[in-house]
Amino acid sequence: MTRSRHFNYTLTPTRLNNAKPQEKPYKLTDGGGLYVLVMPRGAKTWIYQYSLDGKRREVTIGRYPEIGVADARDRHAEYRAMVEHGSNPAAYKRADDAERKARAELKADEGQFKAFSLKWLDERLGSKSDGYSKQMRSSLERFVWPDIGSKALEDVKAAHVLAIIEKRRDTPNTAENVRVLIQQVYNYAIQKLLVETNPALALRGVIQVPKAEHHRHLSEPELGAFWRAVGKQGAHPSTTAATKLLMYSMCRKAEVLRAKWSEIDTDKAQWDIPAARMKSRRPHRVYLSTQALELLEVQRALTGAGEYVFPSAFRANVPMADATLNHLFKRLDFGVPEFSPHGTRGTAATLLREHGFSRDVVELLLAHTERSQTAASYHHHELEAERRRALQYLADETDRQAAISAAGNVVNIKDRVA
């Protein structure tokens, strides 16, 4: 590190103002490597020349009189201090200029729908799951930005939003989801005082959305047939294992497919899912049944060297895609059409309730958020023993129903009622 010597600045505003252009550029030295370069057309530029790592370098500070004498010397002092500490002012200036340019571009674009919707994604969905945020961004990219992304927020009218959702009239749920997405962005823009009206709000109800159908759950005989069909499908072993853990754990599809080996403690027979991956945004513990532990033991032999319990068959460093499980369920032929992965949760919950397990235990197993604050306070305790017993009973009963189905002793529901 070099020590800068003391010096006296020599330039004054009067001298700079009186400096006339010449046929060739010339310097007016101020001191300490700081000078003003006067160009043939009259432009006057502050420049700092310095030595670093045995090389002579220079950095442009800016034009005079936009940058006055006092400001130029303040910047010069900052740059000299950098040189004394071995830093390169020119590199710092380039990075600073790039950052200021980016900020200026962002400010200029902030009023555009795309730029503001990105801001909305960052500021309003930051606490949501990565999967949900990616889904919202994908919808914006596919359905919204191509039509209004470059428009100023205040220039987007109801007619523009109507044109977007009319393109999706054949898929009414998608159309309404896109309308609600635009509405949410504009709600935030109104809160930010950027606009006063919401062009998507008046279009509520333009697209008639079919009444939502809840995911069908299976009866006990149907569960047995389903379990046998999973084993006979001939799917990849990891896909079959993920399907079975879906049932054993009562977790959501995304929670199972993104399971990591670091979350699973087989000695304690438990799987701790972090809050970031849970819909409730609270950590959730799954108490593993004997069958689940056996499944994981086999799976560890297949994938234990990696991060994910159920990795993609194509890339070991990413989890299995949701579509993989969806496609398996669509291929299953066991007498119940349109049974979805989410239906396993309802199937398990119904079976446990019908066999005497309390609502509190089942709700904890499903990781549902309790709306009642009193009940939520009550649920703070783990009910570990009851939950372990429930999940072991679920696995045993699933196996039992599969055995009954295999033996051809499925009891007709009507006969049972009779």
From TrEMBL:
<dbReference type="InterPro" id="IPR011010">
    <property type="entry name" value="DNA_brk_join_enz"/>
</dbReference>
<dbReference type="InterPro" id="IPR025166">
    <property type="entry name" value="Integrase_DNA_bind_dom"/>
</dbReference>
<dbReference type="Pfam" id="PF00589">
    <property type="entry name" value="Phage_integrase"/>
</dbReference>
<dbReference type="InterPro" id="IPR038488">
    <property type="entry name" value="Integrase_DNA-bd_sf"/>
</dbReference>
<feature type="domain" description="Tyr recombinase">
    <location>
        <begin position="213"/>
        <end position="392"/>
    </location>
</feature>
<feature type="domain" description="Core-binding (CB)">
    <location>
        <begin position="111"/>
        <end position="190"/>
    </location>
</feature>
<dbReference type="InterPro" id="IPR050808">
    <property type="entry name" value="Phage_Integrase"/>
</dbReference>
<dbReference type="InterPro" id="IPR044068">
    <property type="entry name" value="CB"/>
</dbReference>
<dbReference type="Pfam" id="PF13356">
    <property type="entry name" value="Arm-DNA-bind_3"/>
</dbReference>
<protein>
    <submittedName>
        <fullName>Tyrosine-type recombinase/integrase</fullName>
    </submittedName>
</protein>
<comment type="similarity">
    <text>Belongs to the 'phage' integrase family.</text>
</comment>
<keyword id="KW-0229">DNA integration</keyword>
<dbReference type="InterPro" id="IPR053876">
    <property type="entry name" value="Phage_int_M"/>
</dbReference>
<dbReference type="InterPro" id="IPR002104">
    <property type="entry name" value="Integrase_catalytic"/>
</dbReference>
<dbReference type="Pfam" id="PF22022">
    <property type="entry name" value="Phage_int_M"/>
</dbReference>
<keyword id="KW-0238">DNA-binding</keyword>
<keyword id="KW-0233">DNA recombination</keyword>
<dbReference type="InterPro" id="IPR010998">
    <property type="entry name" value="Integrase_recombinase_N"/>
</dbReference>
<dbReference type="InterPro" id="IPR013762">
    <property type="entry name" value="Integrase-like_cat_sf"/>
</dbReference>
